């Protein structure tokens, strides 16, 4: 076990950024030419007018994403999509959750000519920054530790591996955004593939980079991806804050994915007795906080 020096650089960058974040545009003010971030106006992003949600540019500010009232609407989109969903609230429940989404690639409908200046969401105010500074994962990378990730693969899938890898890579980019250092989970969807990544609060976000990268490499070894995949750092007695998990379902089973999320948030491990179990996924590293 050794302390990764990257946490010193990470914390220094965050502290250095603090004055700039606090002095940047406040809620209700408008972007200027110096801000360089342009957001597609709501009229251009009406779900009924576009097949896909806005392009994923600002991974940390979900208020710039497209809002949907139903997951069914995403079936018109043929691009990988990142989703903000309630971790455990059922999509088919009596109250429909608000779904925010952004897509992986720029579409013909999402062109610079349709962009205009909009009010910036107040994610860079003192309260937001204070929240980041109170999160251990926002202040340090953690202590590097080699891990063996438990892996279950259903070999009966018929989806091309490259499509599943695209979903994994999108979730990896979400956690790579420094302003998402406090986030615990993210969902992704693509042509019937639904995936979720969960990371406990006592794990540094580099854990997600290592584990998702290793999983993507494993999936790429075959032309077709498993029908269902469960990958997790979870054993008997594992602290809930140190659980990491990824679940991928190629049959669009959102309920199964959310059930896995609920187990991980409670410190439980996901064991599906209907699919094989593999114990030796190499080169996985966790960062313990």
Automatic annotation (TrEMBL):
Keywords linked to the UniProt accession: Chitin-binding, Signal, Virulence
Domain of life from the UniProt record: Eukaryota
Signal peptide per UniProt: 1-17
GO molecular function: chitin binding
Keyword Signal: yes
Name listed for the protein in its UniProt record: Uncharacterized protein
Organism: Ophiocordyceps unilateralis (Zombie-ant fungus)
């Amino acid at each position: 076990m050794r302390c990764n020096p990257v946490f010193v650089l990470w914390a220094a960058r965050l502290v250095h950024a603090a004055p700039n974040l606090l002095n940047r545009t406040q809620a209700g003010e408008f972007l200027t030419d110096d801000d360089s971030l342009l957001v597609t106006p709501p009229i251009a992003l009406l779900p009924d007018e576009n097949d896909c949600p806005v392009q994923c540019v600002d991974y940390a500010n979900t208020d710039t994403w497209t809002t949907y009232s139903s997951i069914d609407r995403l079936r018109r989109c043929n691009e990988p999509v990142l989703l903000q969903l309630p971790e455990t609230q059922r999509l088919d429940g009596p109250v429909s959750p608000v779904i925010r989404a952004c897509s992986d690639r720029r579409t013909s409908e999402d062109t610079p000519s349709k962009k205009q200046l909009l009010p910036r969401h107040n994610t860079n105010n003192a309260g937001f920054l204070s929240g980041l500074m109170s999160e251990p994962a926002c202040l340090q990378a953690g202590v590097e530790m080699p891990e063996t990730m438990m892996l279950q693969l259903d070999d009966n899938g018929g989806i091309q591996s490259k499509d599943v890898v695209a979903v994994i890579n999108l979730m990896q980019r979400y956690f790579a955004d420094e302003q998402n250092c406090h986030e615990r989970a993210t969902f992704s969807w693509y042509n019937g593939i639904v995936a979720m990544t969960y990371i406990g609060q006592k794990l540094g976000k580099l854990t997600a980079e290592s584990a998702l990268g290793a999983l993507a490499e494993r999936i790429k070894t075959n032309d077709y991806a498993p029908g269902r995949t469960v990958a997790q750092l979870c054993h008997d007695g594992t602290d809930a804050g140190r659980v990491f998990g990824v679940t991928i379902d190629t049959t669009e089973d959102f309920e199964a994915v959310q059930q896995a999320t609920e187990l991980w948030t409670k410190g439980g491990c996901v064991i599906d007795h209907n699919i094989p179990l593999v114990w030796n996924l190499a080169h996985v590293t966790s960062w313990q906080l």
